[in-house]
Amino acid sequence: MELTSPAFKQNAVRALNDPQLQKALGNVEKGFVAKRAAARAALPEFEALRDQARAIKTHVLANLDLYLEAYEARVTASGGHVHWAESAEQAREIILGICRKANARTVTKGKSMISEEINLNDYLEKNGIEPVETDLGEYIIQLRHEHPSHIIAPAIHLNKEQVEEDFRRVHTHLPDSRDLSEPVALLSEARAVLRQRYFAADVGITGANFLIAETGSSVIVTNEGNGDLTQTLGKVHVVVASIEKIVPTLEDCAGILRLLARSATGQDMSVYTTFSTGPRRPEDPDGPGEYHVVLIDNGRTAMLGSEFEDMLRCIRCGACMNHCPVYHAVGGHAYGSVYPGPMGAVLTPSLNGINVSGHLPNASTFCGRCESVCPMKIPLPKMMRHWREREFERNLAPAASRYGLGIWAFFARRPALYRWASGIGMKLLGRMGARNHRLSSLPLAGGWTAHRDLPAPEGETFVAAYHRQKGA
Amino acid sequence: MDSRSAILSKIRATRDTGDETARCLAVESRLARPASGIVPSRGQLDREGRIALFLDMIAKAGATHERTPLPRDVPALAAAYLRAHNLPARLRRGTDPRLEALGFEQEPAIEMLAGASDGSDLAAISHADFGIAETGTLMLLSGPDNPVTLTFLPEHHLVVVRADDIGGDMEAAIARLRMLQGKDRMPRTVNFVSGPSRSADIEQTILLGAHGPRALHVMVVG
Ligand code: SF4
């Protein structure tokens, strides 16, 4: 996707003024926060499992080269093929090559953030191969030519009326008179439409939540079953995964799985957890004839040994964005990058460069909730601070944030800017302070509140109220 | 340099501790002798306790279940399930000897179909190799015995699991997997299934029956 992170502030203002989006974003807290809390409370070992998971991944990263070699040897021994890609471009070429060899016209896809990261769909389309997203949320946003606004709930920014509109627009073979007012009708329609696509597809592409070095297996975790149909019904299964997805053993995988679903959706376990190893065996009655894994670096090796190495422990559960007041206020698209929320604020500058994503590490209130819920104990606020420092050193920071209290002078000279900036502030602060009416940090003006609490503002800024009353 | 060497050498450049032998040994021994980590106390129960927890967790995940002491009752129970759900008396299954031994031929009410599914089946039956009490999860292995398409394509999936095969936790399932397959050997897929297919992608409303089965019915035998 085209990165629009440089326009984060404009994106944020637009998001805050979009009533439809604001209504949909209400589902983030409703859907995720309480469920995670309940799942965590029901498992006394949860905190100990977090420490264990961090230790597993830290060990993997310290020995990543060796584990990748061991993993590759097992994949090959089970009849699969491993391909290595340094960049997004190389990865796309490798995948296209596999599709071409299979004479593929259409490919089905399970949900995969790495395939978003390498912009796979556009590339396949340009080369005459039709990619079909099969995860319901991904399918919906593909119909809208949008990108995911959340790493596990890609269509969370939409309401059911919008989905109905899209289905009526695209599924023109179905009668106009059909009733699509209930979500279940939308689901059934997508199920029926996509069933045809699985059988017609030549290649099935999935991501991987984990790669198990011990057995050479790739692991997908889904609730819908679409990833399994994708990889079972195509002639060829292609797994696209970044190099840090490795875990050593089946037991290590089990340990981290206990955190993944609980942190993501509050389930004890997702509905389908599938370990896939190699292609169909001679005696198997179903399954793909070829199994390929494309291992992608695309910026990861540069994070090793840097202050951002810890980010490579991320298991993409989404808990950090589900608990982020900035994400709640502006949604995922405002970040303008593949990965939104706190994990995106750290990862995007690593992958795309701080020069185009400098606003993202600033899109934080440093409230610390992301780190406190991260199952992998990734110090997200600390790393956002590192990015701010780097940005400062490179002198790329906007004047306002470079000079701490100088922010006043900056805004005083730009009244219009001040009005909208404090408008964002008001809305954000209103939400964040709703619980105790005190705030310990202020977005876009961190320097201000480092040493003092501000009372949470209620309502609108003076200027906005003045204009409203004058107009009335 | 090819991409593989380029990636590996970039990693090595920052990982090298000066004692490469120690690093290699640590990795080799971890892979050769996999060890269990923290295992939640939730599933550490006696046999009946595990079965009760397993059934509880299955129900929580939206599946239905029943238990029978006698394997030979399974065909009649399956027939009753199909009738209760207004389904044609037809079931697809693989060649699992445990299913074959149940005596479906003696149940004239059901027509049995064999082999992988092409998507037209309304109901199928599989035999699980293990049940995990802590999460209410079935472990199924792909292959001719239980084709993986039966787990995902039919509207209704019936799964038989022996009471004796219900363990407390995922580590127990992994131990069983290694016992059945041998260390480092895997079937094409190991499918851990916890409930019927579902989606919450439209307004975070949980709906059952996304792409996989709309209903999962677990039959515990013993
Ligand atoms: S940073 Fe942590 S909380 Fe956020 S997606 Fe990654 S693992 Fe989950």
Automatic annotation (TrEMBL), chain A:
* Alphabetical list of InterPro entries matching this protein: 4Fe4S_Fe-S-bd (IPR017896), 4Fe4S_Fe_S_CS (IPR017900), FTHF_cligase-like_sf (IPR024185), Helical_ferredxn (IPR009051), LUD_dom (IPR003741), LutB/LldF (IPR004452), NagB/RpiA_transferase-like (IPR037171)
| Protein name according to UniProt | L-lactate dehydrogenase complex protein LldF
Q: Which residue ranges traverse the bilayer?
A: none
Gene3D superfamilies found in the cross-reference section: Alpha-helical ferredoxin, NagB/RpiA/CoA transferase-like
One term of GO molecular function: 4 iron, 4 sulfur cluster binding
Annotated Pfam families? Fer4_8 (PF13183), LUD_dom (PF02589)
* UniProt entry tagged with the keyword Transport: yes
TrEMBL record, chain B:
The superkingdom listed in its UniProt entry is: Bacteria
Q: Which organism is it from?
A: Gellertiella hungarica
Full protein name: L-lactate dehydrogenase complex protein LldG
- Indicate the segments forming the LUD domain, all copies: 123-221
Q: Output the Pfam families linked to this UniProt entry.
A: LUD_dom
